[in-house]
Amino acid sequence: MTRYGMVIDVERCTGCFNCFLACRDEHSGNDHRPVSAAQPDGHSWIKVREVERGSYPKVKVSYVPVPCLHCTDAPCMDAAIGGAIYRRADGIVIIDPDKAAGQHGIVSACPYGAVFWNAAENLPQKCSFCAHLLDDGWKEPRCVEACPVQALVFGDLDDPRSDVARLCAEKRVEALAPKPAELPPVGYLGLPKFFFAGEIVLGDKPDECPEGVTVRLRDGKQTVTAFTDNYGDFEFNGLEADAEYVLSIEQAGYKPRELRVHTGADPNVGTIVMEPAA
Ligand code: SF4
Ligand code: SF4
Hints:
By secondary structure, the protein is mainly beta. Helices cover 13% and strands 33% of the residues. The strands form six sheets. The protein has a four-stranded antiparallel beta sheet with strand order 12-11-14-15, with no helix packed on it. Strands 8-1-9 form a three-stranded mixed beta sheet.
């Protein structure tokens, strides 16, 4: 039996909103009962969140598309009354547009903000993975088809030959926060993590950008090495939140430097000046 899932590669996503527009094109004004009622203006059944990190000039922007995750243990189903939300045999979580009328509590029950309220119809609504198309023989929802950079990978999680199953087997797929006990059928690659960035200046050559200076970052478990680029800049990405690190810088002919840094935020450690060895 097919079990549908999706892997969203955040590092590929450019924030173009094609997925959102394809979703609107498919659902706006189009009633696909029994799996979804027509989508009104103002709904984002796949919402592209913009996540900005760091501080000027060391800033990173990531785009995180968030549809319904079709959670394995779905809080929305617990909040629904009278079977208004159910899971199909293929894993898709459906809001029944007839039974869900008036159940506003379903909107706040979703921890991912994936359910939207249709005031005119008095109805909670969300992504159905375009179940009406899959039932018609389509291989993927409209959002997946519309993505120009293949940031959305869709398929059968139980088919080891599918791209989505292969990605999940690599064990790099993560759940969106708040992380549930079990990875939902929609998982993520490259979710934004903390980073450290800074710049090295040689005290006796302040007008030059030193390329290739060795910068090491270590915690109690491991050491990661980076080298400055041709602007003298360095960065370490993918770090854990609220962790202590030691940053050490070495360059032949200069006194080594060592700094303690903490990922309470994304620290820009600024300019680190290396003084010549005596
Ligand atoms: S993401 Fe929200 S709406 Fe979708 S299954 Fe999970 S709890 Fe329900
Ligand atoms: S279409 Fe693809 S690249 Fe564009 S916002 Fe959606 S997931 Fe990102």
